[in-house]
Design brief:
307 residues; two-stranded antiparallel sheet; 11 helices; 71% helix
Length: 307
């Protein structure tokens, strides 16, 4: 098997495998594992994310006078909808609005809309969205709908027992490590996030005299593993350079620790949104600094010629 050298081809290959993985997880979750949500939730989420993605692309194509990117055959249609498919299933899997469908639709709209509204200049990649779509959709829904909660972590292994409690997390860790090593290149970020999480757990335990095992306990859950390998590592909204990935991972862990210290619930999702927002601001600041530097360089020869 040859490695993908082209970044766009590598990203597409990763998206395809990620879409397959999250689809299998959702199907097994609703039929075997014990997901608490109804089938109506993923259906509503996918209908919303597909519709939003297609509509926004059609509008952008009309305004710019180009052909929509989903035109050109069945394969292009499917590949175009992969990000929407992933976001829809992630939102419906992680949110728990009881029997209500509205919060799922809201989260799905925000997830797709954020990719158009919140863009920042990335060196070598043009304008890129900087919020993780499904995470910001979940974050906004939790803030606007206080009666909505997060799916209980036990749902991923509710109907499993014995070896099954270990096999499923092991499969997720192995597949997530493979995808991030081969296609996204986000292993430094994962290492920094895990190290940072353990560090903030130790710091809180030392400062407040609480058991370290309790602070580290979330790391043993399937939901935490999914977050680690499939959400915080989103290649479109995280840095490319390993050093910046490490800073990003530690920043998410630090933000989580501060939120937990402030007794803010759902800290994992809020922490990632905060760090993504900070990264977006930093990207705009870098662009402004580069533009000012370019202007000074252009003006320097003129200033030197003044008698």
């Amino acid at each position: 098997m040859t490695h993908c050298t082209d970044p766009s081809a590598r990203r597409l290959a990763g998206l395809r495998r990620f879409a397959v993985a999250i689809t299998v997880l959702n199907v097994l979750g609703h039929t075997v594992f014990g997901f608490e949500q109804s089938w109506a939730h993923p259906v509503a989420a996918l209908a919303t994310t597909y519709s939003m993605e297609l509509l926004l692309e059609w509008v952008r194509a009309r305004l710019s006078g180009r052909t929509p990117r989903f035109r050109g055959g069945y394969r292009r249609w499917v590949d175009f909808l992969l990000p929407a498919h992933i976001s829809g299933l992630a939102v419906s899997m992680l949110l728990y609005p009881n029997q209500r469908i509205g919060p799922i639709v809201l989260a799905s709209v925000v997830a797709i809309g954020s990719k158009l509204l919140f863009k920042a200049p990335v060196a070598g990649a043009g304008q890129r969205h900087f919020f993780n779509p499904s995470n910001i959709g979940i974050t906004v829904t939790l803030l606007l709908c206080p009666w909505v909660g997060i799916a209980p972590p036990y749902q991923f292994t509710e109907n499993l027992s014995g070896a099954g409690d270990w096999i499923l997390p092991a499969i997720i860790v192995c597949s997530g490590t493979f995808l991030n090593a081969r296609f996204t290149g986000r292993l430094p970020l994962i290492a920094a996030w895990l190290s940072g999480f353990a560090s903030q757990a130790w710091a809180r335990s030392a400062l407040f005299g609480t058991p370290l095992s309790a602070a580290l306990l979330p790391m043993t859950g399937t939901a935490f593993i999914l977050y680690t390998f499939y959400m915080v590592t989103d290649p479109a909204t995280t840095p490319e350079r390993p050093v910046e990935q490490i800073v990003f991972g530690f920043a998410v862990a630090a933000a989580y620790g501060v939120l937990l210290w402030l007794h803010v619930v759902f800290g994992l999702f809020f922490a990632l949104s905060i760090v993504c927002a900070a990264r977006g601001i930093l990207l705009f600041a870098r662009q402004a600094y580069a533009q000012r530097s370019a202007v000074r360089l252009r003006l320097a020869p003129s200033v030197e010629r003044i008698p």
